[in-house]
Amino acid sequence: MIVVENLHKNFGGIRAVDNASLTIRTGSITGLIGPNGAGKTTLFNVIAGHYRPTSGRVLLDGKDITGLSPHELFAQGVLRTFQIAHEFSTLTVRENLMMVPPHQSGETLFKAWTQPGLVRREEEKNRAKAEEVIEFLEISHVADELAGNLSGGQKKLLELGRTMMVDAKIVFLDEVGAGVNRTLLGTIGDAILRLNRERGYTFCMIEHDMDFISRLCDPVICMAEGTVLAEGTAEDIKKNEEVIEAYLGTGLKNKPAKAAVQ
Predict the structure, then answer these.
(1) Are residues 61 and 15 in the same domain?
(2) 62 and 94 together in one domain
(3) Any residues with CB less than 8 A from the CB of 257 and at least 6 apart, and which?
(4) What pLDDT, in 10s, does the model give residues 23-47?
(5) Residue that wins the pLDDT comparison between 232 and 249
(6) Residues in a beta bridge with 221
(7) Cβ of 148: how many Cβ atoms within 10 Å?
(8) Cα 245 to Cα 56: distance, rounded to the nearest angstrom
(9) Are residues 145 and 171 in the same domain?
(10) What three-state secondary structure class fits 148?
């Protein structure tokens, strides 16, 4: 689905992404890991149109989407969430969901005045879709709560729900587990798996929690110093000497024998 070819993104003399190439298969939940500063979020931002690459390209189903703006990519089903949730804090959960579908007639003052029936039908359709999402995510108990009053984990669920309000081809999740308690993280993981298995969603997620990654992701891609270091199953990645070196600064073979046994 997504193919990244020889991607570079420089900020002055800093190479945040350095000749990175990878493929995200249709129907997969791909994990993206790496130490802080590895270039993971910058890579997400380039793919999702928030940054233009210095060089290289991004393909979606064989079509070059390099440099398209976020709203153009949104229209093509490429969605991205953020480590810090971007909710409308003074709207309810239900209203946040209903805000997502683009090109609503009620957004135009002229149509709101001249075609109230059309506006009403669209709102009813969006409300029904929002109710479906609320039921799917099992968040009916906070449906009428202001989004700004939600916990961090509930906001992450809301962000996931917002991706369900449109026809998403691929969703990029940036540290969906950050600051989330273990119980709610399990709920988020269940929702991601159900969306993948029951509705065919393709995901790519940045995450530091390897237990969470191991549960959800295959394959797992490890980045370091702006480039792709390794790819494989979660178990393969955990045992990869280069990955251990990138995270810990030294590989197992360089550790004292006693430490390696421990």
Answers:
(1) yes
(2) no
(3) none
(4) 999 999 999 999 989 999 999 999 9
(5) 232
(6) 32, 231
(7) 11
(8) 27
(9) no
(10) helix
Place of tokens 């800093």: 14
Q: Provide the number of structural domains found in the chain.
A: 2
Answer whether residue 214 shows pLDDT above 90: yes
What one-character-per-residue DSSP string does 4-50 give? EEEEEEEETTEEEEEEEEEEE-TT-EEEEE--TTSSHHHHHHHHTTS
72 and 7 within one domain: yes
Q: Is residue 99 located within the same domain as residue 216?
A: no
Point out which residues pair with 222 in neighbouring strands: 33, 230
Average pLDDT over residues 173-193: 90
Residue 257 inside a domain? The answer is no
> Does residue 61 lie within any of the structural domains?
yes
Q: What is the pLDDT of residue 99?
A: 92
Do 164 and 192 share a domain, yes or no? yes
Q: Which residues sit opposite 64 in a β-bridge?
A: 59
36 and 76 assigned to the same domain: yes
Looking at residue 103, the DSSP 8-state letter turns out to be S
CB 158 within 8 A of CB 188: no
- Please tell me the predicted confidence (pLDDT) of residue 255: 46
In this predicted structure, what is the pLDDT of residue 124? Answer: 93
Model confidence pLDDT, tens digit, residues 107-139: 777 777 788 888 888 899 999 999 999 999 999
Residue 168, helix vs strand vs coil: coil
Query: Is pLDDT at 250 greater than 80 in this prediction?
Result: no
Per-residue confidence (pLDDT) for residue 248, from 0 to 100: 64
Report the length, in residues, of the chain.
Answer: 262
- For residue 228, being part of any structural domain is answered with yes
